[in-house]
Amino acid sequence: MEISAEAAADPRSVILDQVVNGVSVRMAVLFRLLGSGQQLVAADAEPVGDDARPEGADR
Questions:
Q1: DSSP string of 1-59?
Q2: Exposure on the CB side of residue 19, measured as CA atoms within 13 A
Q3: pTM for this structure?
Q4: pLDDT digits (tens, 9 = 90+) for 1-59
Q5: Whole-angstrom distance, CA of residue 59 vs CA of residue 9
Q6: How big is the chain by its Cα radius of gyration, in Å?
């Protein structure tokens, strides 16, 4: 959605605050998913999808 520059610059506008908060939230989610240093899947978990093919099956 696009808005006019006047609407974005209005002192009552919270759009820029929402953008800044959105970036912070996305960074936090990505950190939790990718950068926390913790393993998200158990080492003994069974594979799913293409990795679940039986041994010897053509790939």
A1: ----HHHHHSTT--HHHHHHHHHHHHHHHHIIIIISSS-SS-TTPPP-GGGGPPTT---
A2: 6
A3: 0.40
A4: 688 889 888 989 988 888 888 888 998 888 888 876 666 666 677 777 665 556 666 65
A5: 56
A6: 22
